[in-house]
Design brief:
The complex is a heterodimer of chains A (355) and B (302). The N and C termini of chain A lie far apart (47 Å). By secondary structure, chain A is of the alpha/beta class. Chain A is built from 17 helices and eleven strands. In chain A, 52% of the residues lie in helices and 16% in strands. In chain A, the strands form four sheets. In chain A, strands 2-5-8-1-9 form a five-stranded parallel beta sheet. Chain A has two domains: 32-255, Rossmann fold; 256-355, Magnesium chelatase subunit I, C-Terminal domain (Helicase, Ruva Protein, domain 3), CATH 1.10.8.80. Chain B is mainly α. Chain B is built from eleven helices and two strands, in the order H-H-H-H-H-H-H-H-H-E-E-H-H. In chain B, strands 1-2 form a two-stranded antiparallel ribbon. In chain B, helix 1 packs across helix 5, helix 1 (2-42) runs parallel beside helix 6 (121-143) and helix 3 runs antiparallel to helix 4 (82-90). The longest helix of chain B has 41 residues, at 2-42. Classes of the chains: A alpha/beta (355), B mainly alpha (302). The A-B interface holds A 34, 37-38, 41, 252, 255-262, 311-315 and B 83-84, 86-91, 94, 96-99, 101-102, 105.
């Protein structure tokens, strides 16, 4: 259904395409059949293993990163990848788009990047002697958007992503164009080069469900990477799941049950990041996480439980997801920064305090 | 399937409640025996002891029932059920294929749950042993009047008595020295007092013996003088004289070591007979002797 829809779209004019696209997205948003969902659910373990194994062909030693990116994708959310250059951030995202049969676009952010470079703009088109405006869609009209080195873009350009990320639509002039689901923004940022960068505003950072830290691979893995990318053949990934299957998985996550005590635990963790009462937060933090973090923690934990093959959310899921969900949402106070305290250290203390 | 989880939880809940009631009953018995023993030692009315388990049992039962979370109890014993059971129970109103699968899994695991695993055998055994030991102590205390052995001061017991009077209860507590005090009040000197016990079988009244012969045995001393005065003494000429009444004359009398000669001898002896039966039943031949005896007494007193 999806392939035929895409073909049909290509044949139409740009304006017509957008109109048709709106109709198609409505079709897609129809709830999937219970039978399909059940089938996807019964095969989720196999699917997840297939995804990891296929990604593992090109990306080595980054299992946790891959798991977190998949969680972000399964929860219809966005992720911010932070790591030193050359660790394979872009490669991971590219591989992900390949194995999921999703459209992939990449934007290399620079200080002179304009908002219209991301969202698209109107261009004058002459047809049969008549001039008219035609909307030229930007790279945001895709399934996976990789915003490389997002902190190099100006705040104005960064803000152009806000609407797309939150509302999954783009407003240009007086028109609003919905984005084709699924839509994810996977942004990367470099933590060492601060010159000529514009740190993401809190409001925008909050829109990323996860902040995933990409670390150096182990020695064993690095050795394999050397062999893999210095040989004759460059590894390639094949498609593992279709777009529909991905949408089914996204639907499944919402159906995952969670125990009241586990939900309360998640809530306690998020609330304990707010330095209102005496506690760890007041000692180390200036600002805590928003209710969006509470929602994100539960949803991400549900996704983790699902890919781990469980029918229920475990305490372990909450604890594992607390780090990528909270680390960019808590703001350390001056004293903590002076002492070199890391957000993950504070989160660890808060987790212990919250059970 | 949804109801199956709830049904199984309800079954476990009933079993846990039964175990709880049983444990509390044992606790109540222990409490009863403990307080009964203490109250007996202090001589406080035993009816008061019943109040303690009667208050303890319902209040503790309600409090424990309110605090007991069946799911928690089950998951503590069966950690593999922990989050599964919690989730299945919390989402019992939801119905989708994930829930159905979870319920199936939990239901299968719940089949392995044994109610006996919720019983703390060690604790129950120890409490049963404590109850048996206390029962023995309580019975022993009731057979032996420990109040005469324990060094409980008069002041302490007096205060408890005052306390009892304050709440309108006659505790009836007496100090170990009280019988002696009673005795001494009726006799002019110690020799006279000791003679009485001696006649009854010893120098001092025995443990199971009342302070005076004829008073009866028992662990507690609650005797009181009646309107006829001392049961085995007579005041003649302003002096207490010990008397003996032969058993064949009826009444509750102490017969231990009572002069057998007087019972066996046909001859009337003034020294062996200090009390007498009703005058109308006396043979006439003794009339003169009795008359002479009293005349002699009057002469001596003059």
């Amino acid at each position: 259904m999806w392939e035929s829809t895409q073909k049909a779209k290509k044949k139409t004019s740009d304006l017509g395409e957008i109109k048709e696209h709106t109709i198609d997205s409505k079709k897609i948003e129809k709830p999937p059949m219970e039978k399909d969902l059940e089938r996807t659910y019964s095969e989720i373990g196999k699917t997840y293993k297939g995804l990891l194994s296929e990604m593992g062909k090109t990306v080595l030693g980054q299992e946790e990163v891959m798991e977190n990116i998949l969680i972000a994708v399964f929860t219809k959310s966005h992720a911010l990848l932070e790591g030193f250059p050359g660790l394979g951030k872009t490669l991971i995202v590219k591989t992900l788009s390949d194995i999921m049969d999703l459209k992939f676009k990449r934007v290399q952010c620079t200080p002179d990047l304009m908002p219209s470079d991301i969202t698209g703009t109107y261009v004058v088109e002459e047809k049969e002697g008549k001039k008219s405006f035609r909307f030229e869609r930007g790279p945001v009209f895709t399934n996976i958007l990789l915003a490389d080195e997002i902190n190099r873009a100006t705040p104005k350009t960064q803000s152009a992503l806000l609407e797309a990320m939150q509302e999954r639509q783009v407003s240009v002039g007086t028109s609003t164009y919905p984005l084709d689901p699924p839509f994810f923004v996977l942004a990367t940022q470099n933590p060492i080069e601060m010159e000529g960068t514009y740190p993401l505003p809190e409001a925008q950072v909050d829109r990323f469900l996860l902040k995933i830290l990409v670390d150096y691979p182990g020695e064993e893995h690095e050795e394999k990477i050397m062999d893999l990318y210095s040989g004759e053949k460059t590894p390639e990934s094949r498609r593992v799941i279709s777009k529909n299957e991905l949408l089914n998985i996204q639907e499944l996550i919402r159906k995952m049950p969670i125990a009241a005590v586990i939900r309360k635990y998640a809530l306690n963790i998020v609330r304990n990041t707010r330095p209102m009462d005496n506690g760890i937060a007041s000692e180390f933090l200036d600002y805590g996480a928003s209710p969006r973090a509470s929602i994100g923690l539960v949803v991400a934990s549900k996704a983790r439980a699902l890919i781990k093959g469980r029918d229920y959310v475990s305490k372990e899921d909450i604890e594992a997801m607390a780090y990528p969900i909270l680390r960019h949402r808590i703001i350390l106070n001056f004293e903590s920064e002076r002492k070199g305290v890391k957000p993950d250290d504070v989160i660890e203390k808060i987790i212990k305090e919250s059970w | 399937m949804k109801n199956e989880i709830v049904t199984k939880i309800t079954e476990v809940d009933k079993a846990i409640s039964n175990i709880m009631v049983f444990t509390l009953l044992i606790n109540s018995v222990i409490l009863f025996l403990l307080f009964a023993t203490v109250f007996t030692l202090l001589g406080i009315d035993l009816r008061l002891v019943v109040i303690i388990p009667l208050l303890y049992l319902p209040f503790t039962l309600i409090w424990k029932k309110m605090r007991t979370d069946t799911i928690n109890v089950v998951t503590q014993e069966y950690p593999t059920l922990d989050e599964r059971l919690q989730t299945a129970y919390d989402n019992r109103d939801r119905d989708n294929f994930i829930m159905r699968r979870l319920n199936n899994d939990v239901s299968r695991r719940m089949d392995d749950v044994c109610c006996s695993s919720f019983t703390n055998t060690r604790r129950l055994t120890s409490r049963t042993v404590v109850a048996v030991v206390l029962a023995f102590i309580f019975l022993s205390v009731n057979f032996i009047n420990l109040s005469q052995i324990l060094p409980l001061g008069d002041e302490f017991l007096g205060e408890i008595n005052t306390l009892g009077e304050g709440i309108g209860i006659n505790i009836g507590l007496s100090s170990p020295s009280e019988p002696g005090a009673w005795e001494s009040s009726n006799y002019s000197n110690e020799e006279e007092q000791e003679r009485l016990g001696g006649k009854a079988g010893g120098q001092q009244p025995g443990i199971n013996e009342g302070p005076t012969p004829g008073q009866g045995g028992g662990t507690g001393y609650t005797g009181e003088q009646d309107i006829f005065g001392d049961p085995s003494s007579a005041k003649i000429g302003g002096e207490n004289v010990n008397i003996e009444i032969h058993p064949e004359y009826g009444g509750e009398i102490e017969i231990k070591d009572v002069g057998e000669d007087s019972l066996e001898s046909d001859e009337f002896s003034l020294s062996s007979v200090q009390g007498s039966k009703a005058p109308e039943e006396e043979p006439l031949k003794y009339e003169q002797i009795i008359k002479n005896y009293f005349e002699k007494l009057i002469e001596e007193s003059e």
